[in-house]
Amino acid sequence: PKLVYDFSEGNKDLKDLLGGKGANLAEMTNLGLPVPPGFTITTEACKVYLETGSEPTALRDEVSAHLDALEQRMGRKLGQADDPLLVSVRSGAKFSMPGMMDTVLNIGLSDVSVEGLAKQAGDERFAWDSYRRLIQMFGKTVLDVDGELFEDALEDAKRAKGATTDVDLGAPDLRELTEHFKEIVAKETGRDFPQDPREQMDLAVRAVFDSWNGDRAKLYRRQERIPHDLGTAVNICSMVFGNLGPDSGTGVAFTRDPASGQQGVYGDYLQNAQGEDVVAGIRNTVALADLEELDKKSYDELMQIMETLENHYRDLCDIEFTIERGKLWMLQTRVGKRTAAAAFRIATQLVDQGLIDEAEALQRVNGAQLAQLMFPRFDDGAKADQIGRGIAASPGAAVGKAVFDSYTAVKWSRSGEKVILIRRETNPDDLDGMIAAEGILTSRGGKTSHAAVVARGMGKTCVCGAEELEVDTKRRQMTAPGGIVIDEGDLISIDGSSGKVYKGEVPVVPSPVVEYFEGRMHAGAEDADELVVAVHRMMAYADRMRRLRVRANADNAEDAARARRFGAQGIGLCRTEHMFLGDRRQQVERLILADTEEEREASLKELLPLQQGDFVQLFEAMDGLPVTVRLLDPPLHEFLPDITELSVRVALAESRKDHNENDLRLLQAVHRLHEQNPMLGLRGVRLGLVIPGLFTMQVRAIAEAAADRKDAKGDPRAEIMIPLVGTVQELELVRDEAEQVIAEVEERRGVSLKLSLGTMIELPRAALTAGQIAESADFFSFGTNDLTQTVWGFSRDDVEASFFTAYLEKGIFGVSPFETIDKDGVGALVRDAVKAGKATRPDLKLGVCGEHGGDPESVHFFDEVGLDYVSCSPFRIPVARLEAARAAA
Ligand code: PEP
Ligand code: MG
Predict the structure, then answer these.
(1) In a 10 Å sphere around its CB, with 0-12 CB exposed, 13-18 middle and 19+ buried, how is residue 624 labelled?
(2) Is-contact 718 702, C-beta < 8 A?
(3) Where do the annotations place Mg(2+) binding (predicted)?
């Protein structure tokens, strides 16, 4: 196969072969845009190199042929002494990847050709500046010399001249500096900087290949689940120069505002500079609009090109360009990154322009972006005193008093204070403090640091790695640049969506998108927020497109009502144990402690009307829509006092000779019910089978409540769900009893209730015997929390805080399997259970109610395996609706 493509031979759909950069350079070339000529070495060549340790034999000749053609076209040869052709060598994988070698500019310069360049350009300073840049970049990225050695030398040179920026260094200074750089290379590598231009080029190409397997690149791929065998392409592009004087320059531009989505002129321009200067922020850039005054011809041409690109890519594009002595050149374009708000607005704008249809618009946004738009945020209009910035690790806006240790965080929050926990980095000992805090701020660590991972898991706002903030936990103090000191107790505000840290209290406003879902803001209003209008429209597209239904996990009328406003089509999981907390705990305690049948029945009788009342409210809130009520699940000891506290109390009383019969009995019961592994113990259906009357009481309450609603002319649609079933026999026993109770209620109340009865599939054995279980179940709801716990053998309550950070850092998984479904393991069981269940009972209804039901990637999986619905917490419902549509589109 062909290993090298001229820019004119590729196109934007060849990203696998030419990488993102190469494919887009080819596309622009074919659109007739001014791209400096060049060629791309394919990812196939890279793959061969990575597999065999050497370049494919044909590569050298193919590169020579393309280089010859390039030289012909440009009328000069690479590194030619009197007038050198120079090229850049740039990496470009299918996905842009931090940690890979980026760019080496000015390849082709040598001790000889630097003089030729100086003459041709009529600018000695420029030539030496270009040469020193080559040695610096080449030394660092190709020859692996510590980059700081060059930077220090540059600083020394500036200091010696009293210069503030590199522009103040003249030709003689740069010539001297170049010599110095060459010495550094010789000393560090034991060889001279290569003078042969082709050797420079070949070494740079090989360095790009090698960088595919750099440590950071590998880690990034593991975390982002990018396959390791894609390889990278290499782009070789003739150089154009933005540093040839005031009529030259370089810039970046966007076809729309990537922050808001607004159409207009957005970008930055830097006169007399080369590419990396803009990013490095060495000198101040000017707004792109000012280019119109500096160079009207180039500006007009650029505007024209941007319009061409937008219409062609049918999306926001970002662009890198250079102007060389008044001539505009396009160096790169790609579909640009954007904020969540911009993504929604751009998608609807493009629909209005007729550039994309609804299905495509749905692919232009995602659930994570929608979730981000639903967090409360700091008031844009308010005064805010920013003191630092870190990594936006877990979104949200949090305000509180600064505390520097977990103990204080807990103590202060118990007394009603809002606190922000500030640490250099967190570890599992900080967990209590993290739970107590409104938000977490660290000065070290990245997106997979302990703080970031745990905070995301808890849905807590977190900014991590704010390195300019100095945290001194001993002195309970944080120092920001400029000597600003934050003491314990001072108010600070952190923005987990932008990473910004503020001194004092910044006012928080609710998200307009949530106000819209809540019905407090209307998309039809004349002065409607543009973002709200865009979200409204996208949700309408989504609901037209999706196959999956979306239900809510909710166990009270308030949550049910909110879920309905957010678009829920029923309740997929009502956890009845949540109805037994608070005041009712005592009653459950009595049930557990009952010694005689009479005592037990008495306590069940007390619970029945309470449960019935709960269900009436729930069925009313979800009138006309299905409500899946799950019978009691958690281990009983969760309803009893803590074993240690109680033991101490009893022991103290004993020592005072103060016998408390009740406490003693309680302690005995706590001991009797104590389990080493309660998650694997007396829970779910096991409870129902061991405590006579418990499940029948719940079934009766459901049936009576449904009958009450019928009497009130309502439309109750209850479904009864049995948790933690491992074998069909368990289900049959419960089912027989339940059916008797239901029949009895129906007869007595003179109604037909049409209650369906199903099971959770949340144990591996249940999944493996799904075909049998379906004999006795009207529906399955996959409990992927417990299924993940039992398939991996991970304790769902402990792992996130203990070893998951290490697992994430090592790239064993990029995301917790409790957050995104593990398709290969847990998912495979789900897929097979769906098949087996359907084989037994073709009309089996299928859903999922684990946390994964609201996770974007998992929703796609559930759509693919053919579930009927996903169920998730009320706030995740819009996200699930959107992702269900994206899966179907
Ligand atoms: C599950 O296990 O996925 C589930 C929904 O049940 P719970 O989280 O209540 O155990
Ligand atoms: Mg469960």
Answers:
(1) exposed
(2) yes
(3) 762, 786
CA 166 – CA 160 distance, rounded (Å): 12
Query: Residue with structure tokens 């402990």?
Result: 798
Q: Residue 174 is encoded by which pair of tokens?
A: 């740069």
DSSP 205-240: HHHHHHHTT-HHHHHHHHHHT--TT--EEEEEEE--
Walk me through the domains of the chain, giving residue ranges and CATH numbers. Answer: 69-238 (1.20.80.30), 249-335 (3.30.470.20), 375-509 (3.50.30.10), 546-635+675-888 (3.20.20.60)
In whole angstroms, how large is the CA radius of gyration of the chain? 33
| Summary mean pLDDT of the chain | 92
Q: Which residues contact 538 (CB under 8 A, 6 or more apart)?
A: 344, 347, 348, 361, 362, 365, 882
- Dmax (CA) for the chain in angstroms is 107
Tell me the DSSP string of 68-120.
Answer: HHHHHHHTS-BT-SSS-B-EEEEEEESS--TTS--EEEEET--TTHHHHHHHH
Residue 320 to residues 6, 312, 313, 866, Cα–Cα distance (Å):
20, 17, 16, 44
Taking a C-beta distance cutoff of 8 angstroms, is the pair 462, 496 a contact? yes
DSSP bridge pairs for 646: none
Q: Is 575 annotated as a binding residue?
A: yes
CB of 785 sitting under 6 A from ligand 1: yes
Give the integer Cα–Cα distance in Å for 22 and 289.
Answer: 28
Segment holding 814, helix H or strand E: none
Alpha helices in 715-815 (DSSP H): 728-749, 764-768, 770-773, 784-792, 804-809
- Sort 9 into a burial class: Cβ within 10 Å, 0-12 / 13-18 / 19+: middle
C-alpha closest to that of 641 among 657, 662, 610, 611? 662
pLDDT for residue 457: 65
Mean pLDDT to the nearest integer, 342-362: 96
Q: What is the pLDDT of residues 66-123, one digit of tens each?
A: 999 999 999 999 999 999 999 999 999 998 887 788 889 999 999 999 999 999 999 9
Q: How many residues does the chain have?
A: 889
CA distance 450 to 420: 16
CB 786 near ligand 1, within 6 Å: yes
- Side-chain-side CA neighbours of 671 within 13 Å: the count stands at 9
Tokens for 799, please give them: 């792992």
Rounded CA separation 330/29 (Å) = 9
pLDDT, tens digit, for every residue of 269-296?
Answer: 999 888 766 655 556 778 899 999 999 9
Distance 762 CA to ligand 2 centre (A): 6
- How far apart (Å, rounded) are the C-alpha atoms in residues 637 and 533? 50
Q: How far apart are CA 273 and CA 187, in angstroms?
A: 30
**Which secondary-structure segment (H or E) carries 561?**
helix 557-565
- Active-site residue (options: 66, 180, 317, 450): 450
The angle that helices 784-792 and 828-840 make with each other, rounded to 10 degrees, is 120
Distance 724 CA to ligand 1 centre (A): 9
Q: Which amino acid, one-letter code, is at 460? A: K
Which residue has 């005064």 as its token pair?
383
DSSP conformation class of 51: H
pLDDT at residue 280, as a whole number = 57
Q: Which entry of 849, 852, 860, 872 is annotated as an active-site residue?
A: 849
**DSSP readout, 684-704?**
HHHHHHHSTTHHHHHHHHHHH
Residue 439, beta-bridge partner list: 420, 461
What are the structure tokens assigned to 9, written together? 């031979």
Ligand nearest to the CA of 632: 1
Q: The tokens of 652 are what? A: 């103290």
Residue 402, token pair as written in the block = 């600064």
What is the helix (H) or strand (E) element at residue 503, kind and residue range?
strand 500-503
Which residue's CA is minimally distant from atom 6 of ligand 1?
Answer: 783
Reduced to 3 states, what is the DSSP secondary structure of residue 181? helix
DSSP 138: I
